[in-house]
Amino acid sequence: MKHRIKARTVGKGIALASAGFAAALALSTSASAAPSLSVSPNSSLSDGQSVTVSGSGYKPGSTIVLLQCDGDKPQGTACDKQALVAAAADAKGGIKATFTVHKQFTGSNMAGGSGTSKVDCSSGHCYIGATDASHPGAQGAGVVLTFS
């Protein structure tokens, strides 16, 4: 199942010191072609399961940040920061990465606020979101997850 997420912000100001770059997680509308994202599998998932995330439509060479977030909360306010994955877009703007999903996690506010919240994805409201950290404000994409 593919979904495009349009939003004000998934998050701003996340610093990734170990990777040596600062990423701004922003999902907004854009005049260029919308990126697409797929997650396989994305249903009947188990806690700690590895999934394959593939995407296209990103700017070549961009750093694409992948996060699992709670779709019932304002975007970017309850994401699993511990599971964050960064993927480099290839020469054609494609990405492919392995991502570990969690049925429950402590959600961090990636939208510039503070605090954490307990997230339970068993009711099907969580998603993996992707955004271009190299080009803040670029449109992102996301895929809804369901757990068994």
TrEMBL record:
<feature type="region of interest" description="Disordered">
    <location>
        <begin position="37"/>
        <end position="58"/>
    </location>
</feature>
<dbReference type="GO" id="GO:0042742">
    <property type="term" value="P:defense response to bacterium"/>
</dbReference>
<dbReference type="GO" id="GO:0003677">
    <property type="term" value="F:DNA binding"/>
</dbReference>
<feature type="compositionally biased region" description="Low complexity">
    <location>
        <begin position="37"/>
        <end position="46"/>
    </location>
</feature>
<keyword id="KW-0044">Antibiotic</keyword>
<protein>
    <recommendedName>
        <fullName>Neocarzinostatin family protein</fullName>
    </recommendedName>
</protein>
<dbReference type="InterPro" id="IPR002186">
    <property type="entry name" value="Neocarzinostatin_fam"/>
</dbReference>
<comment type="similarity">
    <text>Belongs to the neocarzinostatin family.</text>
</comment>
<keyword id="KW-1015">Disulfide bond</keyword>
<keyword id="KW-0238">DNA-binding</keyword>
<keyword id="KW-0929">Antimicrobial</keyword>
<feature type="signal peptide">
    <location>
        <begin position="1"/>
        <end position="33"/>
    </location>
</feature>
<dbReference type="InterPro" id="IPR027273">
    <property type="entry name" value="Neocarzinostatin-like"/>
</dbReference>
<keyword id="KW-0732">Signal</keyword>
<dbReference type="Pfam" id="PF00960">
    <property type="entry name" value="Neocarzinostat"/>
</dbReference>
